[in-house]
Amino acid sequence: MSAMMNSLRPSLRAASTTARSFSTTSRRDLARMILTGRLGSEPELQATASGREVIRYVVASEHGRTQNRKTDWFRVASFPDSENQKNFLLNLPKGSLVYVEADTSLRQYEDAEGRKNTQLSLVQRNIDVLRRAFIRREESEGSEGSEGSESAEHQ
């Protein structure tokens, strides 16, 4: 049996490199990033130059060992398709723990001093709220908040 398996290995290896598994669609190039972190501020509604609504927010993600923890800040843009998606994002409090899937691209530009810079652009495809931050209300006693998982998708 071992000799038979040895004779089949080259053909099995070739088949695995030429076939894509778990997909019936054509192959496409993509650049995607997954972030898990806390909202650094409340999401803000803005308008693009063409007048399209965009919601911008910042996700803080920590990495490194306990003694040398570092925080990276990622700016994310979301283009809501519906009023529900817009309200969902705009009502997320600062500090909420989120899982974000975003399309990425690099944009090169020249600053006022003539230096060339590269900026990472993240456009949200999906966001899951892993834990909502507690909201303190000055007019009420105690704090209010909830834990759980919520999500909004962007296609």
UniProtKB/TrEMBL annotation:
InterPro entries per the UniProt record, alphabetical: NA-bd_OB-fold, Primosome_PriB/ssb, ssDNA-bd
Domain of life: Eukaryota
Cellular-component GO terms for this entry: mitochondrial nucleoid
One Gene Ontology term from the biological process aspect of the record: mitochondrial DNA replication
A GO molecular-function descriptor: single-stranded DNA binding
Cell compartments where the protein resides: Mitochondrion
Transmembrane segments annotated in the record for this chain: none
CDD domains: SSB_OBF (cd04496)
Main location: mitochondrion
Start-end of Low complexity biased regions: 13-24
UniProt entry tagged with the keyword Protein biosynthesis: no
UniProt cross-references to Pfam families, sorted A to Z: SSB
Stretches the record annotates as Disordered: 1-24
Alphabetized UniProt keyword annotations: DNA-binding, Mitochondrion
Annotated protein name in UniProt: Single-stranded DNA-binding protein
Organism whose genome encodes this protein: Aspergillus chevalieri
Name of the gene: RIM1
